[in-house]
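job 3f2a | input accepted
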Amino acid sequence: MLPLPGTTVTVTTEWRMPELRYHEITGEVIKSPNWLTAEQFAIANPHHPNGFSVVHMSHVVDIRDADGKEYKFTADPGIKVWTVTGSKGNEYTVKCQDGSYSCTCPGFLYRKHCRHITECI
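job 3f2a | predicted structure (121 res):
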């Protein structure tokens, strides 16, 4: 899913020109112009003549939130999801829905709070 307007993200894209190249842009997602397709979104970019850059999801390798954590966008603007790496290398999913956090780690199952959530707050 596409990031929502007002969200600050860092997007890494890859292109073959003719060799493989990566490009990274950080900025606030803006309301997309009407001419963009459903797979595209716009990020404010003061270095671009139009004031924004267009990102096509087919080129996206990674999207991170303002804190640098991997961010998985959902269709519901009230839900945010992160993937957090635990101390032993396991990956856990932290979800914030309507202000309530949850995590897939065993610690959250027993204590209803964990350091993975603390990292995302």
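job 3f2a | Residues 8-64 form one domain.
job 3f2a | closed
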